[in-house]
Inverse folding.
C-alpha cells in the first residue's frame, strides 16, 4: 500500500442547471441544484485512496457546515484528515451554472488561501513516512513551494499538478520530481512559449508526465526518449475530475514504476468519465482491475 500525502484545496461545488444563462439583473428559474465535494486537492486524495493508497490530506476548510461536511466526506473514503485545519473564512466553493453543454464558474478560494507553510510543518511526520507528496496550485504558491522543500528534506518524490496553471519559479521547478500538466498547462507553468511540447519533455527526461485528452499520456524515460501511453476507449458521461483521477492514481501506483503507473493512471482517468461527478466517477481498485482485465 503506497503512502501518499496530498497538499491542496478542498471545495464544495454548487451546481445550478438552467435553460439559459441569466443576463445582468435578470432572475430565472433553474432546472435543478446539487452539491458535490470537490477541489483539486480533495479530488486527488479521494482518487488515490479509492485505489488502495494510504492517503493523508493537508488542507484547510472554513468553520462552517461545508467544512465539516467536506472533512466527513474525505474520511468516508479513508483519507486521514487530522492535518486538515479550520480557518477563519468560509470553506472554498465553486459556483457552477450549467446550461446545455456550457458552464460558467465562479470560484471563491475561501479557507484554501489560509493554508500556510506552518500547516505543512505541523504535518512533517506524515511527509517523513510518505512514498509520494502530491500538490496542485489552488492553495498559496508559497505553501506549495514549502511543501516541495520539506519533501526534498526527507528525500521524498514531490509531484506537482500545475493547475490552475501559473508560471512556476525556477526553484519550484527544480524541487519538483514529476510535473503532471496537460499540454496547455505545460506551456504556462514552464514558460516554454511556442516550443513544441515534445522538445520540452525531452529537455527534462523523466520529470514530466503530460496528459493529452483522448490520446492518453506522454512521458520520457531517463534518456529523454518519448513514451506514449494510448488512451482507453470509453463512453464519456462527464469528464470532470479525469485529470485529478489520473494524478491520484499516478501517485498511488508510482512504486510500480513509471510505465505501469502511467498505464494504470490513464485507465483510471478514462474509467472516471463514465460516471457523473468529479469524485462520483472515481473508480475503486477492484473496478480498475476489472476494467484493465477487460481491456487487455
Amino acid at each position: 500500500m503506497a503512502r501518499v500525502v496530498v497538499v491542496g484545496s478542498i471545495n464544495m461545488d454548487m451546481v445550478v442547471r438552467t435553460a439559459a444563462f441569466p443576463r445582468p439583473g435578470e432572475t430565472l428559474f433553474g432546472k435543478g441544484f446539487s452539491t458535490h465535494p470537490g477541489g483539486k486537492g480533495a479530488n486527488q486524495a479521494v482518487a488515490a485512496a479509492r485505489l488502495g493508497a494510504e492517503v493523508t490530506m493537508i488542507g484547510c476548510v472554513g468553520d462552517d457546515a461545508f467544512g465539516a461536511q467536506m472533512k466527513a466526506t474525505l474520511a468516508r473514503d479513508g483519507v486521514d484528515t487530522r492535518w486538515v485545519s479550520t480557518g477563519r473564512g468560509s470553506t472554498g466553493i465553486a459556483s457552477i451554472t450549467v446550461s446545455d453543454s456550457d458552464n460558467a464558474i465562479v470560484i471563491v478560494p475561501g479557507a484554501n488561501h489560509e493554508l500556510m507553510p506552518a500547516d505543512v510543518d505541523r504535518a512533517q511526520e506524515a511527509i517523513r513516512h510518505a512514498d509520494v507528496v502530491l500538490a496542485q496550485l489552488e492553495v498559496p504558491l508559497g505553501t506549495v513551494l514549502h511543501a516541495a522543500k520539506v519533501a526534498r528534506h526527507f528525500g521524498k518524490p514531490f509531484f506537482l499538478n500545475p493547475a490552475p496553471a501559473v508560471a512556476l519559479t525556477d526553484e519550484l521547478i527544480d524541487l519538483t520530481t514529476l510535473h503532471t500538466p496537460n499540454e496547455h498547462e505545460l506551456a504556462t507553468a514552464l514558460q516554454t512559449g511556442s516550443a513544441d511540447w515534445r522538445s520540452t519533455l525531452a529537455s527534462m527526461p523523466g520529470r514530466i508526465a503530460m496528459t493529452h485528452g483522448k490520446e492518453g499520456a506522454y512521458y520520457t524515460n531517463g534518456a529523454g526518449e518519448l513514451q506514449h501511453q494510448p488512451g482507453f476507449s470509453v463512453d464519456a458521461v462527464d469528464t470532470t475530475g479525469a485529470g485529478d483521477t489520473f494524478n491520484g492514481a499516478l501517485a498511488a501506483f508510482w512504486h510500480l514504476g513509471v510505465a505501469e503507473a502511467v498505464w494504470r493512471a490513464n485507465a483510471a482517468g478514462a474509467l472516471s468519465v463514465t460516471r457523473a461527478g468529479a469524485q462520483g466517477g472515481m473508480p475503486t481498485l477492484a473496478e480498475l482491475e476489472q476494467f484493465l482485465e477487460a481491456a487487455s
